[in-house]
Amino acid sequence: MLSKTMQDALNRQVAMEAASSQAYLAMASWAEIQPGLDGVTNFFYQQSDEERVHMLKLIRYINERGGFAIVPTLEQPNITFQSLQRVFEEFLKHEIAVSESINELVGLALQERDFSTHNFLQWYVTEQLEEEALARTLNDKLELVGDDKGGIYLFDKDILLFRSAISKDNNAAG
């Protein structure tokens, strides 16, 4: 059985994952109306779907442990961006915030001696390592490219390959 404190903290994480899904959906929508960013568009649609899966996983866990998961109301995410580089800077900031939140949850689980929740959260810890590495890599690539149209074209073309490369590297290291 989850404590009220843990239930509330997990519900806050549900809201964060839902907000992440919405933010990435907004990024996908923005990218979709930019000429030639099909890869970026698909990348953020996938990110949005992935965050929704993370939210559902938390909801199911809370309910299975005797708690009550709350489906959150969401604020309108940012829907316009000054540049592709700004989109990816926001992506990185968002992933860092999610990682910090997950780390707080892990700390709370240990403090409460809730080892089931601690164990459950390890999947999120690993996932956030991958997400932050991916966001940092993509930001680094965009910094190298700058405003070069050819570089942006190649970045857009290869963006989905970066995700699989990061996942493969982390799986080999783990």
Notes on the protein architecture:
The protein is mostly helical and 174 residues long. The protein has a single domain, classed as Ferritin (Up-down Bundle). Helix content is 80%, strand content 0%. Helix 1 packs antiparallel against helix 3 and helix 3 runs antiparallel to helix 4. The radius of gyration is 17 Å and the shape is elongated.
Quick take:
With 174 residues, the protein is an all-alpha fold.
- Count the domains: 1
Order of helices and strands: HHHHH
Oligomer: single chain
Specify the CATH class: Mainly Alpha
Helix/strand layout:
Layout: H1 4-32, H2 38-64, H3 84-111, H4 115-145, H5 149-173
Helix pairs in contact: 1-2, 1-3, 2-5, 3-4, 4-5
Task: Note the main attributes of this structure.
174 residues; Ferritin; 5 helices; 80% helix; elongated
